[in-house]
Structure formats: structure tokens, C-alpha cells
Design brief:
single chain, 234 residues, alpha/beta, Rossmann fold, eight-stranded mixed sheet, globular
């Protein structure tokens, strides 16, 4: 049986933020920094952390909205929650978020139950941040699910020093076709990047319970992610 707890992490600028930590049966283990969507560290993220822990990883999902409003925990089920999520997204400072994720990465590496290897995986906003984890940090590997705004960040790809796995939805309502083409063409020669394209899928096709959830596509992406982590984290 896996176990979970809330932990506190100290930021580089002196504040603190909370994180959900899920632990596997066997320790020590490799770590994974799980990066939230725009709905905070909600039940979807906690379930995802528990699933990754069941695969044998020490998983930490930090609260990235703490600088705006701590402990956000909302769903994608109502218009009011969507409005709140986009309000938070607009107020979110990406650079500060990456710094918090890098701090989380180092925190996980230093945990007594971690073997020193740590990767990341993120969804939506987290997919964008996972790409930046690849370009700006020393994470051992990174996985980005349907990241938004990556067409504006591909120039950072020279900073990618470890394997990056990307899942792109062909009908992503938040990533127009021209942006998708720029991402694919810009990264196709990068030997560190593996990009899987799901032509008929919309944004968040792997979010269980979401409007665009597709079980087959989600399984394909998640199986690829599991194999990727096994190869790069052990």
C-alpha cells in the first residue's frame, strides 16, 4: 500500500509552500515532481500522485499558486471554477513557478527516501512548466502533457540536457495549428526530445472525468510515460 502526507517546502525567497507527497511501498526510490494543472493540487492531481507512487516512485506535487492564494483545490465541473482557474492562471508568474519547481526538485533529491534521481511530469499549465524544467533545471528527465504556449518557448531548447517526452493533442483548443507546427518543426531535430502526436485528441485528453477524456489515448500516453520513467529513472 502507498501512503501520503502533506509536506512543507521552503522557497528561495524565504516563504513556504505545501505539497502533496505520495510514497511507494519500497524505499528508497526515484522521485517525480508532479506539476499541477490550473485547478491547483486537487483530487485529480492527488490521484495521479498516488498512481505514480503505486508504480514505485516518490511523488511530490507542490502548490504553485501559493503566492497568489494558497491551497487551491477546485475542479473543472462548473463555470465558476473555470473562471477562478483562469483568474489564477493569468496572475501566475511562470518564472517564479519554475523556481519553486526547481526548489521542489532539490527538496525531493534531499529526502532520505529518495535515491537521488528525480524527474518531472506536468499537465496543461504543468506541461508548459515541465518543458521549462527540461530547459532550466537539472531534472533527470521530464514529461509534458499538452503544454500550452510552448511555441513561444522553443528557443530555450538548447538548455535541454536530459530526455524530454512530450504528448501533443492535434485538436487542442488552446494550441492552434500554427503553434503546433512551430513546436514540431522546431524540436524535430533535437535528439533529447521525443514527441508523440495524438491527431484526433483535444486538450486534457488524459484527465479522467474531463470533457475530453479519451481512455485509449490516455492509456497510450500513460504507457509511454511509464516506459520513459522506467528507462530514465529506473
Amino acid at each position: 500500500m502507498t501512503s501520503s502526507e502533506r509536506i512543507t517546502i521552503k522557497s528561495v525567497d524565504g516563504g513556504t509552500f505545501s505539497a502533496y507527497c505520495a510514497k511507494p511501498d519500497t524505499l528508497p526510490a526515484s522521485g517525480i515532481v508532479l506539476i499541477q494543472e490550473i485547478f491547483g493540487v486537487n483530487q485529480v492531481m492527488r490521484d495521479q500522485a498516488d498512481q505514480l507512487a503505486a508504480q514505485g516512485y516518490l511523488v511530490v506535487c507542490p502548490d504553485l499558486f501559493w503566492r497568489i492564494e494558497p491551497n487551491i483545490d477546485i475542479t473543472d465541473k462548473t463555470e465558476a471554477e473555470w473562471a477562478k482557474a483562469f483568474e489564477l492562471f493569468k496572475a501566475f508568474n511562470v518564472d517564479a513557478g519554475v523556481k519553486d519547481l526547481d526548489t521542489t526538485l532539490q527538496h525531493v533529491r534531499d529526502m532520505e527516501n529518495c535515491n537521488g534521481k528525480v524527474g518531472s511530469v506536468g499537465f496543461c499549465l504543468g506541461g508548459k512548466l515541465a518543458f521549462l524544467m527540461a530547459t532550466r533545471t537539472d531534472a533527470d528527465c521530464n514529461v509534458a502533457y499538452y503544454g500550452v504556449g510552448l511555441d513561444e518557448l522553443v528557443e530555450e531548447q538548447s538548455g535541454i540536457g536530459t530526455p524530454l517526452l512530450m504528448h501533443m493533442a492535434g485538436k487542442d483548443q488552446f494550441v492552434p495549428p500554427e503553434a503546433q507546427e512551430k513546436i514540431k518543426s522546431s524540436l524535430k531535430e533535437n535528439s533529447k526530445v521525443t514527441l508523440h502526436y495524438y491527431a484526433d485528441q483535444d486538450h486534457a485528453f488524459a484527465r479522467i472525468g474531463g470533457n475530453h477524456y479519451d481512455a485509449d489515448a490516455a492509456k497510450a500516453a500513460n504507457d509511454r510515460t511509464a516506459a520513459f520513467f522506467k528507462e530514465n529513472l529506473g
